[in-house]
UniProtKB/TrEMBL annotation:
Cellular component per GO, a single term: membrane
Lineage: superkingdom: Bacteria
Single GO term (MF): metal ion binding
Source organism of this protein record: Lignipirellula cremea
GO BP term, example: lipid A biosynthetic process
Coiled coil: none
Record keywords, A-Z: Hydrolase, Membrane, Metal-binding, Transmembrane, Transmembrane helix
The Calcineurin-like phosphoesterase domain, residue ranges: 168-329
Protein name: Putative metallophosphoesterase
Transmembrane segments: 6-24, 44-67, 79-99
The protein's Enzyme Commission number: 3.1.-.-
Amino acid sequence: MHLVDFLLLFLAFVGHVAIAVTIFNRLHAIGLPCSVVKLTEKLVILAAAVVLLLFSIYFLLQGFAVYQPAFASGRFWPPLLYLIPCWAASLCVAPLWIWRKLASRRPVSYLANTSRLVSLAVERPQSLVGTRSTGLLLKVPGNQIFQLSIEEKTFQPARLPAALDGFTIAHLSDLHMTGQLKRPFFDALIDRTNELDCDVVMVTGDIVEKAPCLDWIAPTLGRLQSRYGVYYVLGNHDQRLSDVGALHRLLADLGHIHVGGRCLEVDWRGAPVLLAGNELPWFKPAADMSDFPPSPEGPFRLLLSHSPDQFFWAQQQEFDLMLAGHTHGGQIRLPVYGPLIAPSRYGVMYASGVFQQGPTLMHVSRGVSGLQPIRLNCPPELTRITLRSPAV
């Protein structure tokens, strides 16, 4: 194989993967019915694998020569035209990676961050594995599904009133109660959350996916402790429940407050705060903000959203702080490059972390669990956010 042939084949492979990943990521961000998403994602994966196999066989028969048989002989194979978009896509990978790195630079209002890993499996001697597939994935070297990263982050939103200086938020997201991980896993998670002693707890969706796990709500989320309550929105996996209302009723019985599709004014430490929820595109509508126009002198504005795709809506509504999840940090993060998979219209741009655009500071959690219980270089996250006021 000549060097030119090797480079052309390598670029074609990179581009093919990039095209498949781009389709896969957007598929999980547009609000299609669950059955359609499941079928389509399988077709995308199958098509990507078949195309790769066919091209591998073709070039194996050609002695891995690319240029000569493809373009310089009379034996042109029409499917080779697919190489053109693959090469074009491969040439976009590096510039997009650089742009993503530049766009995700640490915001000025993100003052500090510390983190520590704790093993939930060590603290609970009983098995936390609920299914055979989970047990198999647990054997993958480096799988961090039980390595909880407890992160403490300090933000300084520009409009935070002095009365809320030092106010703390526990941010939980993407619990994915499916039975793949047994209830003691979530018991340990709640214990760790309560140890953070936060003023308020925010849960940004994908709480329960399987109906039998509804029985876990009261003994787990019912134990959450905070001074100003627990607020939540739902996510796309909660939509898979046949009776979403049952989840709402269970959480309401615990005193937890649903803010999806609505806004409410609360008083924290004598300071007014406007809370709103956006569960688009899975649960409509988003909060109607027409009665709460943004004002420099108005209350601090805080948005709960399952998906970070609502970041630009949050900016339009001039929210000061937005909390989101959904993307799981990518679950598998490659050295240097980072994540490949993130269910977002923006790909992996907002897979996890802290972002500032316009008036809005957004925190995207890596979440706690996932439909596929595997995490490599991307541990589950429990976050304690401390707010600092510029007025102090």
